[in-house]
Amino acid sequence: MTRRRTSLADIAARAGVSQATVSRALNGRPGVAQATRERIAAAVEGLGYQRLTVPQAHPAGLVGVVVPEIDNPVFPALGQAVGRVLVASGLSWALFSQGPGGLDEDQCTTTLLGHGACGAVMVSGLHADLSADASRYALLRERGLALVTVNGYRPTAGVPSFSVDDREGMTQVLRHLVRLGHRRIGLAVGPPHYVTTARKVGAFRAAHRVVLGHDAPPALLAHAPFGLAGGRAAAGALAAAGASAVVCGSDLTALGAVEALRARGLRVPEDVSVVGSDDSPLMAHTDPALTTVRMPVEELAAAAVGALLGQLEGEAVEPSDTLIAPQLTVRRSTAPPGAGSLSSPRRPWRSAR
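Given the sequence above, the corresponding structure tokens read:
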């Protein structure tokens, strides 16, 4: 009978460590104590482990990075950042993107489990949808999958979460716009049943009270679908409400807003200033270059992978909500409201003919 080949799981069990630690030690990666390396070396020798000279189809230490889409450039950028940290930690990774005609989140995690993955980083997934059942993550943990979520904390998910500090970002945006002279500032965000939307709305209202000294008028808040189309729809409503500046929940929403404002004969930023969120790749090269709140991609990636490695090392898993501060990047899509500003009583907004 053919003898079963020794696996990383066998070495991990013999040495009393995780498979991820074995992988890091065998690949000479940092983050493994010398005493632990010696135990792993002894286990390797005792079990007669020999590494393959060709890549395995599904190597031990595989982590899935699941993003909602790749059309929005911030998601592949975040996925790549997570992947770099995983590789530096001795792990392999695979990017899963959802979307029409593709896999949904549950199918992604089922595929990962079927391929023996040890963990997953869920980015803006069902955990961020208040209408979805977050208990699915506890079930995945019970099946041995280490989990962290990014952008969209749900206590019922039962896992560590890492998100952008929207209140800090929104405060930076409103202070910038008020310094420029804006007083009627609108917010264009996604559907209200998402955690990220609710947080941005709450942050906008809180910052509005602090920076402008009063509550934001309800007419200056517009919900619309995510993406370009949503930005186009929201910009029309906010323009009609007399906004001289529009703050958007994403960069794609901001680009849609710019399109819609121009279609109405309005100039950006001379008539209406526009602010995005994420600082996605290429936002410095749009027309005009977009003022936006930079998502701390590298910081989110490092923190999320750090928590995932802790789980793989056997640390207790507790739900937690870690906020990481973003940074406003000022470019050319914001300016003082000029003579053509919609907030000026001399030139009220009219529908484009």
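The chain has three domains: 8-47, 62-164+296-325, 166-295. Try to locate this feature in the token string yourself.
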